[in-house]
Amino acid sequence: MSVSLPLFPQLSGLGWPIVKRPIWSTRVDTTLSGREVRSTYRQFPIYEFELPINYMTQADVGALQGLYLRSQGAFNTFLVDIPNDDSVTDQYLATGDGATKNFQLQRSTPPAPNLVLKPDFEDGQMGLWTAPPQTTLAVVSV
What is the spatial distance between Cα 53 and Cα 44, in angstroms, rounded to a whole number? Predict the structure, then answer.
């Protein structure tokens, strides 16, 4: 059985600018001589979003409460669809070898690619709905 992650609701009072910050996990070990050795724990960043909300209707409040309940508070993650940051055109997907049937979709955005968690297929064409890796918890500042 497939379980889909809930989607952050489209709020009527959503303002601009929407801030998207990459968060990396890096370990820095410093020796007594001052030399530093750095190790990264992630191949791809997780993202923190700041969504300014100018006003909220009663329907918006209900939608946010529903998301909070479906996510069981901070226990589960949810997806966020950011306008103007949810599609690509003429994107290279993969090079097949004749045997591999599954590929991890990525969207090339400098300086590092983004994983595509939920691809949408409409009208025979593949539209990419981009999202952070599955372990991401989107943090919303109200």
Answer: 28
Q: Is the CB of residue 49 less than 8 Å from the CB of residue 16?
A: no
Q: Is the pTM of this model over 0.85?
A: no
Helix or strand or coil: residue 44?
coil
Q: Which amino acid makes up residue 108?
A: S
d(C-alpha 91, C-alpha 81), whole Å:
19
* N- to C-terminal Cα separation, the chain: 34
DSSP assignment letter at 87? -
- Asked if 21 and 27 touch (Cβ cutoff 8 Å), the reply is no
**Other beta carbons within 10 Å of 115:** 16
Q: Which residue(s) pair with 39 in the sheet?
A: 27
- Nearest CA-CA partner of 77 in 11, 129, 131, 23: 131
Q: pLDDT, tens digit, for every residue of 66-108?
A: 999 998 988 988 888 887 777 777 777 777 788 887 777 777 6
Taken in order 61, 75, 106, 120, the sign of the CA dihedral is: negative
AA letter at 118: K
| DSSP character at residue 66 | H
